[in-house]
Amino acid sequence: MIDFQWGNAITQEKGNSREIFQVDFDFKGKIRLAFFNNAWNYMVYKDISHILRNQNFDKTKSNTYEIQQENELLTVKINNTTVLTHKINPVKGSHVGIQQCLKSVWEIDDLIIKQLGNEKQLASLKPNLDSVKTASSQDVSIIKKENMLSTTQHAIVFPNPFKSDFKLSFYNPEKGIVKFTITNLNGAVLQKHSKLFEVGQQQADFYIDEAPGLYILQVEYVNKEPEVFKVIRK
């Protein structure tokens, strides 16, 4: 496994914590995106084994890994093939790091770092919770135990259908890690997310770079019944 990190890796003063993004790869075909801010509290876990098989990926040969962040959009490529796209909130920082598992050996021929865009464009994106109030019931799909579609007071998916990204507004009854799993209709896990949330109304952002169609989002809370949503990428 090898990890690539970027952001602000140094605590400059008391109360100013490090903010680091990390992308790591393993040879079993998994890619993970994590964010550090006092703790590793946010991750995207995706199976890309089918992509690697299609390009006849060989870990013993030379391979090219490309990580590009342009404003809020992160794109990860292996051998010029996109394996992950995800929206993230940019953080200020100029630190870049690489680390590897002690059981692996990597030989790096070239390391190229480029700065893209204007620094003024790197302001963090603020979630727009006002749009939750205007979301219609037609934009929300929830699978209940009775296999019926309905809406709930505290959990709203919007927009739905969506082009590439959507949001989930939900009520978190207790501070803790909330887990999100996105699967296709065959049950194959496409993404796994986890994040530490405070008590109260919260929002989570998702980005799906799969083919158009129907997907399942499952939400697991600390002390609350799990919820399952149908989301449609158009």
From TrEMBL:
Cross-referenced NCBIfam families, in alphabetical order?
Answer: Por_Secre_tail (TIGR04183)
Q: Which InterPro entries match?
A: Secre_tail
Superkingdom: Bacteria
**Species name:** Pedobacter aquae
Instruction: Name the chain's protein.
Output: T9SS type A sorting domain-containing protein
Name all Secretion system C-terminal sorting domain ranges.
157-224
A family per Pfam: Por_Secre_tail
